[in-house]
Amino acid sequence: MKLILLGAPGAGKGTQAEFISKKLSIPTISTGNILRAAVKNGTPVGLKAKEFMDAGALVPDEVIIGIMKERLAEPDCAEGYILDGMPRTLAQAEALEKEGIDIDVALSIEISDEEIEERMTGRRACTACGATYHIKNAPPKKEGICDNCGEKLSIRKDDQPKTVKNRLAVYHRETEPLKGFYEARGKLKTVDNQPTIELTTAAIFKTLGI
Ligand code: AMP
Description:
- 47% of the residues lie in helices and 16% in strands.
- The chain is of the alpha/beta class.
- Helix 1 packs across helix 9 (197-208).
- The protein binds adenosine monophosphate.
């Protein structure tokens, strides 16, 4: 299955992508995680991306499209994948089509801006592997420490309240129109955010028929 996860920043795409990934044994490809690793390692892509990311703005399409072409050519993508955080603009969606990438489903997780703003302030991310937690909804086993790799958790710069507002505005302006793009192709499915992570996972599995 080739699946795109759509939804506002903080909607739970990364968390749900991991559950779907385990269930279907296909990799999750998160452009956000790829970019954060590039920033951390000081690569040319990282140097270009950092200022956009810190401001909650989008990294230019050509950078993202380059990253995606490279990543989707890796052997682990042969049986399918979950795209988390890409495409985020119509130009990126069109670039995927131009590459001959035929998406099966674009699944949008629907959630209000108010809930997102509340949620982001509790989010913590691993500085090493990118795994995300929430102090209330999905706490790590040991406070401040990543379950996966034992490294320290921190608040992402782009999860600060002012940046979150900007990211939501960017989402509504640039990314939300993708719902229409995929609806017109008969690929769009939507799931309402549920009171718990588990209930949202169940709703997603039901919608995907997995
Ligand atoms: P995320 O972890 O998906 O919320 O991404 C974090 C940040 O990385 C975003 O706020 C953007 O600055 C950048 N980013 C990630 N994916 C994309 C994309 N597909 N297009 C443009 N910028 C992106």
